[in-house]
Write a structure and sequence with these properties.
Distance between the termini: 32 Å
Structural class: alpha+beta
Strand content: 25-35%
CATH topology of the largest domain: Trna Endonuclease, Chain: A, domain 1
CATH architecture of the largest domain: 3-Layer(aba) Sandwich
Helix content: 25-40%
Length: 403
């Protein structure tokens, strides 16, 4: 039984290894069929490395867990979403598009819920509309809202503003408390002189100029957004860890791009990495390509297979793949022989960062020993320092000991 289990694992690994090999020779479209079930997960991974997403998530993480992005109404543009970037000296307000927030909610990074519903223009769907009273007879907007006053002594009833100097226009007597009464609001049309108690209403869209009745307007939901607390750990790992790697590489003299874009030499496709870093050493350019994958309880082989394919298409001197919290066993077997600097767990400790820094410096040194010759550094046992030769040391970067 044990032998069969091992055989099954070997077959699974061999199949996925074969898939990686075929990517180098098949059409570029082949990569599009990889991990269709993981499409949302891969999209989420790409979203995490977008500067705008990282900036927003950093602010949300720093705020209280129940912090919500609530829309504000701007009479010039409608509803807008804003968040205040917390800076030491001068807090800055950032405008965020609703489409951007909707996409993060679709990727399950943000939580979306109902905030309000409003009437909008049936033509252009703008919420920038104004409500108008109108005369039921001539449909004019030129109406006046007033009140009626009755002079009890003589029985005269008219608009309150007709009682000039507080005297009755009919009998001339001054209005005395207890001898007159207010009879309620009243509307008068200035165009046709029609008097009425209840006006009609219509609406004008200030964006397209369309006029319409209230019943003709459309209702639209206005949502609010908050951090998806079910993914708070994943979000923190993605945002904070990528910043840690960026800072590390900058300190090593690299110029860093997040996200990193590179054109495939064979396919002509533009590939996106979590991070690309470049540095000139003794007239030779050293290229680092890093991908970061986060998934619970472990990272599957799909992100690694995609990473291997991308690195086969572009010049990469130091390939780095970060898996949080761990990479599954099948993926580890696939990584064998690709000389990938594999890091499991979050680099949130100084000692871990120093170990990664030393490993990168070591690989830079090995790269410069004999330019053009792929000489692999040797470990203490005299073996070539392949992925598995260094696996025990590298794979547990960032992982905390259980002992």
């Amino acid at each position: 039984m044990k032998k069969n289990l091992l055989d099954d694992t070997k077959i699974e690994t061999d199949n996925e290894q074969a898939a990686v090999s075929k990517m180098s020779t098949e059409k570029p479209e082949a990569i599009l069929t990889l991990g269709l079930d993981d499409k949302i997960e891969l999209e989420r991974k790409e979203a995490y490395i977008e500067p705008k997403t990282r900036q927003l998530l950093r602010e949300l993480i720093q705020c209280e867990e129940k912090y919500q992005i609530i829309p504000n109404y701007n009479p010039e543009v409608g509803f807008v979403y804003q968040i205040t970037e917390q800076k030491t000296n001068a807090p800055e307000t950032l405008n965020i598009s609703q489409d951007f927030l909707e996409n993060l909610a679709r990727l399950d990074i943000l939580h979306k819920e109902f905030y309000d519903s409003v009437s909008v223009c049936p033509v252009c769907h703008s919420p920038i509309i104004t409500l108008h009273n109108r005369c039921p007879k001539c449909k004019s907007h030129n109406i006046d809202k007033t009140s009626l006053t009755e002079h009890i002594l003589c029985g005269f009833i008219d608009q309150r503003n007709k009682y000039v100097n507080n005297r009755c226009p009919k009998c001339g007597e001054r209005l005395v408390e207890g001898q007159f009464r207010n009879m309620g609001r009243w509307f008068v049309c200035r165009d046709c002189s029609e008097r009425f108690e209840d006006p009609e209403y219509d609406v004008t869209c200030r964006s397209c100029g369309k006029g319409f009745l209230i019943k003709e307007s459309q209702l639209t939901e206005i949502p609010k957004f908050s951090l998806n607390l079910n993914r708070k750990k994943e979000i923190r790992q993605n945002v904070a860890s990528l910043e840690s790697f960026r800072e590390l590489l900058v300190n090593l003299g690299f110029s860093v791009e997040i996200p990193g874009l590179a054109m495939g030499q064979k396919s002509g496709m533009q590939h996106q990495f979590s991070l690309i870093a470049k540095k000139q050493v003794n007239g030779q350019e050293i290229n680092v390509a890093l991908d970061l994958a986060v998934s619970e309880p472990e990272v599957s082989s799909s992100p690694l297979i995609l990473y291997i394919y991308k690195t086969s298409e572009v010049k990469v001197d130091i390939p780095i793949f970060v898996a949080m919290p761990v990479l599954n066993e099948t993926a580890k077997k696939i990584a064998q022989g690709h000389e990938i600097l594999l890091i499991e767990g979050s680099p949130d400790e100084k000692e871990v960062i120093e170990n990664i820094k030393s490993e990168i410096e070591s690989r830079i040194g090995a790269k410069l020993i004999e330019p053009g010759v792929k000489e692999k550094p040797k470990n203490n046992d005299g073996q070539r320092n392949s992925f598995m030769g260094k696996f025990g040391k590298i794979a547990d970067f960032g992982k905390k000991s259980k002992n």
